[in-house]
Amino acid sequence: MHRFWGWLIVNLVLCLISFIAYSSQIFIIWPWYGNALSVELLTLLLPFNFLVGMLLWNYFLCVNTDPGQVPDKWRPDTHTDGFEVNKLTRQPRYCRTCESYKPPRAHHCRQCNRCVLRMDHHCPWINNCVGHFNYGHFIRFLFFVDVACSYHIAMVSYRVMDANRSPTAWNWLSSTELIFIILNYVACVPVLLAVGGFSLLHFHSLLGNTTTIERWEKDKAATMVRYGRIQSLKFPYNLGNRRNIESVLGTNFWLWCCPTRTLGNGLKYELNAVDGEPLESWPPKDPDHSHYEDPVAGFQLPDTPWTFENGSFNPDLQPSNSAIRQNQNQAKRRRKANPASGTSDLPPYHPDYQSPNEMDAPDDSGSSDSGSGLFNSSNGTTRVRRGSEGYEVKLEDRNLMLRKYLESVGETPGRYHRYIPMPDSESEDEVEGA
């Protein structure tokens, strides 16, 4: 997301909070009490403004607090417990984009273009990632949104109930009050329902010391356990409800609702280890992927993604750039307007495709050695669509396949053994009688 749109969303959220918080007090509650200060009015509004203030404070911290990033040249200590491994290689996780190792529970964010410590998710409403150092602020923000919206709806509803006590009571409501009552309900009720459901999800994750990404990993592990692929295993970061909350909100119960700095540095986390029990690697390995690796040497990544099916490197295969893709249509139009000799309109994977050299040279043997199936451009490289995956299959035409077959059975290519039936010969008696 562009930086401008991110900050625009943040300002829209602030406008929504301000409208719900202050329009109800100015246009609904204040006229209700006769536009005069009183003890009852202060008793009603002071708790509400305290909740709004805590909401805005934690929202400010969510937006401006760095969730944490991996220090330069950080390397995991593989001699101690607590480092995560890659699902395939079973080695310490490595980010190819950042070109650095990933600490436990860290993941790469495409929006922030960096690895975030204990990444939960990227939230567009705060224009920031929710990570190690601002996850506590995010939890408090959700809590105060739920409490403040509930207090707001109760306060406005009490005003409506008071005006509805007698049949003529609605005459005391001005048109301005009635309009703002409707607008506050329309704005506040959807926010409470949406944020409330989202809050329940994160409060449950907080009790289990689980991030959003780790919840997906736990679902995958539960599926493998249900189908009998792996044995049941426990989540290594679940320390118990009380200790899980303390790891995010602090050890002092009375300060859980106050903004405090998260404990630790985000590079190592306490594990739920029991003496004498080995720790299982997380995330768990899917045994169905074992046929992709050597049982002795283990899984080994190729040196380059551009390989033939037999693992050899194709030096003529080069990824294309955006300029080639943008000018592709123009090049086709130029070729049609000025046809040149030695060019083919067929794609390189077509069975009847011929390379420029084969089109210029006479075809004596009746076979074309265009088995490579590569499209040679003017600079001698092959254009390949960016984002191609997997292995390249070396294409062969039918003539080359026939030549290989004849060589495999011991025949000479170009010499065909055909059965030509002989005409029926006349009998010897007929010849002698003649």
TrEMBL record:
Compositionally biased intervals (Polar residues): 307-324
Keywords attached to this Swiss-Prot or TrEMBL record, sorted alphabetically, are:
Acyltransferase, Endoplasmic reticulum, Lipoprotein, Membrane, Palmitate, Transferase, Transmembrane, Transmembrane helix
Q: Can you tell which superkingdom this protein's organism belongs to?
A: Eukaryota
- Low complexity: which segments have biased composition? 364-373
Q: Which residues form the Palmitoyltransferase DHHC domain?
A: 90-218
Enumerate the active-site residues.
Answer: 123 (s-palmitoyl cysteine intermediate)
The record's GO CC annotations read:
endoplasmic reticulum membrane
Q: Care to name a GO molecular-function term for this sequence?
A: protein-cysteine S-palmitoyltransferase activity
Q: How does it sit in the membrane?
A: Multi-pass membrane protein
Region: Disordered; residue ranges are 279-390, 414-434
Q: Where in the cell is it found?
A: Endoplasmic reticulum membrane; Membrane
Q: Which reaction does it catalyse?
A: L-cysteinyl-[protein] + hexadecanoyl-CoA = S-hexadecanoyl-L-cysteinyl-[protein] + CoA
- Any single Pfam family the record assigns to this protein: DHHC
State which Enzyme Commission number(s) the record gives. Answer: 2.3.1.225
Give residue spans, biased composition: Acidic residues: 425-434
**Transmembrane regions listed in the UniProt entry:** 7-33, 39-61, 138-158, 178-201
Stretches with biased composition (Basic and acidic residues): 283-294
Q: What does this protein do?
A: Mediates the reversible addition of palmitate to target proteins, thereby regulating their membrane association and biological function.
Q: What family is it from? A: Belongs to the DHHC palmitoyltransferase family. PFA4 subfamily.
Domain description: The DHHC domain is required for palmitoyltransferase activity.
Q: What is this protein called?
A: Palmitoyltransferase PFA4
